[in-house]
Design a protein that fits this description.
mainly alpha; Multidrug-efflux Transporter Regulator, Chain: A, Domain 2; three-stranded antiparallel beta sheet; 3 strands; 55% helix
């Protein structure tokens, strides 16, 4: 069963967030918001759009960030989210293939390594200097 997506018109969103509909249109022109459209070309805001709007309003109202700064911050957040997803995918890959890596590492001898491995153990010695009074 498909879950129905809640949508809101521009007038409803403007009233909910106490902003003028022209402000929402400006955010759309600036590329900060991208609501979907109905068959009749009415803007339809979904929950994700409202979350993004809340970030925009927080940055502009509470922190005094201008729209150019908001755009930069939103782009950086998007890139960070993408990097986080890629990291999580890579981590999952490592977890599922850990046994393969450990088996492969035992199959190589030190002479086959790209960087030769010394058989000697290096120990750091700490010299203590005593001062005589």
């Amino acid at each position: 069963m498909k879950q129905r997506v809640r949508t809101y018109t521009i007038s409803a969103v403007a009233e909910m967030y106490d902003i003028h509909p022209q402000t929402l249109r400006l955010y759309e022109r600036e590329g900060l918001l991208a609501p979907s459209r109905s068959i009749g070309n009415t803007r339809l805001y979904e929950d994700g759009d409202l979350e993004r709007l809340e970030v925009i309003l927080s940055l502009t109202r509470e922190l005094g960030v201008n729209l150019a700064g908001v755009e930069i911050i939103l782009n950086m957040r998007s890139k960070m989210d993408q990097m986080q997803r890629e990291f999580e995918q890579f981590f999952e890959y490592l977890k599922t293939h850990a046994n393969e890596f450990s088996q492969q590492s035992g199959a190589f001898s030190s002479s086959e390594a790209l960087i030769p491995i010394s058989r000697y153990r290096v120990t750091r010695v700490r010299n203590e200097i005593s001062s005589e009074d």
